[in-house]
Amino acid sequence: MAPTWLGCKQISKDKLCSQLYRFVVVVVVVVVVVVVVVVVVVVVEIVVVVLLVVVVVSKVIIVVIVVVVVSVVVALVVIAVEVVIVILLLVVVVVVLVEVAAVVVVVVVVVVVVVVQTNYYYWYSYYFFFVFFTPKETHRT
C-alpha cells in the first residue's frame, strides 16, 4: 500500500508516460520548426543569389537597386525569424526544465514520506516491544 501522508501518493506509470510523451512531442515540434526554417533560409539565399546573377548579367542600375533592397529586406526577415526561433527554443528548454524539476520534487517527496513512515513504524514497534515484553524491574530508575 502506497503511503498517502500529506496527500502524496505513489507516482503512476501513466503520469510518467504522459510526461515523457509531452517531452517527445515538444522535441519533435522543435526539430520540425528548425528544419522548416533552415529550408526557408536556404531557398531565400538561392533567390538572393539568382537576383545577384541577374544584376551582374543585366548591369541595369534599377535592377541593382531593387535587388539590394530586396536582399536587405530578406536578410532582415531572416534575422527576425531566427530570433523568434531562438526565443521559442529557450521557452522549450525552460518548460522541459520545469517538468524535470517537478518530477524530481515528486520523487523526493515520495522518498521522504516513505522514510518518515518507515522510521515512525520502526520506533513505535520498538517502544511497544520494550514496554510490554520486558520485565517491569528494568523500567525502574
Automatic annotation (TrEMBL):
The chain crosses the membrane at residues 21-54, 88-114. Keywords: Membrane, Transmembrane, Transmembrane helix. It comes from the Eukaryota. This is ABC transmembrane type-1 domain-containing protein. It comes from Elysia marginata.
